[in-house]
């Protein structure tokens, strides 16, 4: 599956579960670890976990085997490593603290229509 298709699949899965402030960052010129980061916020620890679980379910159903996941238990921040795409789902305060958008400043950024 192409990176762009995987990004769209992740964004759609996040939108299905009412994720907030969905942002994608094209980081392929900044790191060799991944091509795109998808960042989204959840309204509670339970919502963050549900968002991450939905992304995992949708990508697996599409035949993509995630390389790993972190933080699903705590619910403040979930990281899903899908290879060419890494998905971060966080509580708003956690997202503000880590400020990944600023960290990767200069990467091509776009926001999903429902994230604004």
Automatic annotation (TrEMBL):
<dbReference type="InterPro" id="IPR043519">
    <property type="entry name" value="NT_sf"/>
</dbReference>
<dbReference type="GO" id="GO:0017148">
    <property type="term" value="P:negative regulation of translation"/>
</dbReference>
<dbReference type="Pfam" id="PF02410">
    <property type="entry name" value="RsfS"/>
</dbReference>
<keyword id="KW-0678">Repressor</keyword>
<comment type="function">
    <text>Functions as a ribosomal silencing factor. Interacts with ribosomal protein uL14 (rplN), blocking formation of intersubunit bridge B8. Prevents association of the 30S and 50S ribosomal subunits and the formation of functional ribosomes, thus repressing translation.</text>
</comment>
<dbReference type="GO" id="GO:0005737">
    <property type="term" value="C:cytoplasm"/>
</dbReference>
<comment type="subunit">
    <text>Interacts with ribosomal protein uL14 (rplN).</text>
</comment>
<dbReference type="InterPro" id="IPR004394">
    <property type="entry name" value="Iojap/RsfS/C7orf30"/>
</dbReference>
<protein>
    <recommendedName>
        <fullName>Ribosomal silencing factor RsfS</fullName>
    </recommendedName>
</protein>
<dbReference type="GO" id="GO:0090071">
    <property type="term" value="P:negative regulation of ribosome biogenesis"/>
</dbReference>
<comment type="similarity">
    <text>Belongs to the Iojap/RsfS family.</text>
</comment>
<dbReference type="GO" id="GO:0043023">
    <property type="term" value="F:ribosomal large subunit binding"/>
</dbReference>
<dbReference type="GO" id="GO:0042256">
    <property type="term" value="P:cytosolic ribosome assembly"/>
</dbReference>
<keyword id="KW-0963">Cytoplasm</keyword>
<keyword id="KW-0810">Translation regulation</keyword>
